[in-house]
């Protein structure tokens, strides 16, 4: 476990209240990191879980769908915990609907949360890392729809293709500073965002038939990929997108 030792590190995780974000925050805490959790609502359950692991936790409540001062977010974290070594851009929303039913308002809402906030928060955190000579780690949560078109989720697919693009771009520009930028591409994970799909018997059946492992992932099953990418020993891994999809993309 020494390869995954994050003692003395501080991680900022967006969308940390439930699902994938909470599971990743818990994994980072188990590895020794203190956690700053950013979410659109208070997250007492996450705070209790991180505290129970013996790590510090601070909560930042922000709605990422509107204009933001992300440098102020960074300053707020640094004022309490002192630094940011790891950023996990996990916050995301999805609007499902047929191609011809998508509105401009729905499109913009998804892009603001999934893509725009990830880029500009990364920009602010990377500036902090460079100023502090921190060999930081930025991990974006992409999707299997970073590689595919999917159906009935045009804005989500576009945003996740964008995440793949900015991951590679930021990796190129931040490499001279010792900062790595990678992404994880989850497949179908049992979270609030996928409740609608799991409740649709026909769609759920079709999805499971396509997954070689034959089941939905649990959020905690993304943790090992994250710990690998943020490990101090993974300093030569950057610009990579790691699928955690039960074999979906290999089908």
What are the SSEs and their pairings?
Layout: E1 10-14, H1 19-30, E2 34-39, H2 44-52, E3 57-61, H3 70-81, E4 86-89, H4 104-131, E5 137-141, H5 154-174, E6 180-186, H6 195-199, H7 201-210, H8 223-230, E7 241-244
Parallel strand pairs: 1-2, 1-4, 2-3, 4-5, 5-6, 6-7
Q: Distance between termini? A: 32 Å
Mind telling me the C-alpha Rg? 17 Å
Overall mean confidence score, pLDDT: 96
Helix content: 40-55%
Structural class: alpha/beta
The percent range for strand residues is 5-15%
Unreliable stretches: none
What is the global morphology?
A: globular
Main β-sheet, spatial strand arrangement: 3-2-1-4-5-6-7
How is the main sheet built?
7 strands, parallel
Short structural summary:
The chain is of the alpha/beta class and 251 residues long. It contains eight helices and seven strands, in the order E-H-E-H-E-H-E-H-E-H-E-H-H-H-E.
How would you describe this protein?
The protein is an alpha/beta fold. It is 42% helix and 14% strand. Strands 3-2-1-4-5-6-7 form a 7-stranded parallel sheet, sandwiched between helices. Strand 1 (10-14), helix 1 and strand 2 form a beta-alpha-beta unit. The longest helix is centred in the middle third of the chain and has 28 residues, at 104-131. It is globular and about 50 Å long. The chain starts with 9 loop residues before the first strand and ends in a 7-residue tail after the last strand. The model has no long low-confidence stretch (mean pLDDT 96).
């Amino acid at each position: 476990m020494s390869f995954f030792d994050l003692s003395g590190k501080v991680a900022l995780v967006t969308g940390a209240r439930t699902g994938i974000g909470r599971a990743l925050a818990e994994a980072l805490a188990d590895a020794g990191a203190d956690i700053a959790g950013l979410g659109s609502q208070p997250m007492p359950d996450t705070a209790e879980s991180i505290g129970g692991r013996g790590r510090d936790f601070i909560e930042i409540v922000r709605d990422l769908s509107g204009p933001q001062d992300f440098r102020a977010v960074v300053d707020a974290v640094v004022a309490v915990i002192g630094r940011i070594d790891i950023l996990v851009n996990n916050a995301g929303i999805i609007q499902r609907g047929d191609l011809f039913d998508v509105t401009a308002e729905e499109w913009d809402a998804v892009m603001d949360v999934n893509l725009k906030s990830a880029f500009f928060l990364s920009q602010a955190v990377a500036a902090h890392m460079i100023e502090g000579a921190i060999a930081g780690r930025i991990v974006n949560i992409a999707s299997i729809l970073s590689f595919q078109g999917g159906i009935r989720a045009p804005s989500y697919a576009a945003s996740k293709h964008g995440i793949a693009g900015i991951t590679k771009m930021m990796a190129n520009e931040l490499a001279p500073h010792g900062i790595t930028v990678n992404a994880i591409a989850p497949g179908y994970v049992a979270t609030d965002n996928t409740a609608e799909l799991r409740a649709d018997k026909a769609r759920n059946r079709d999805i499971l038939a396509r997954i070689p492992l034959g089941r939905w992932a649990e959020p905690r099953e993304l943790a090992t990929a994250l710990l690998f990418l943020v490990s101090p020993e993974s300093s030569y891994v950057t610009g990579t997108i790691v699928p955690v999809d039960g074999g979906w993309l290999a089908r």
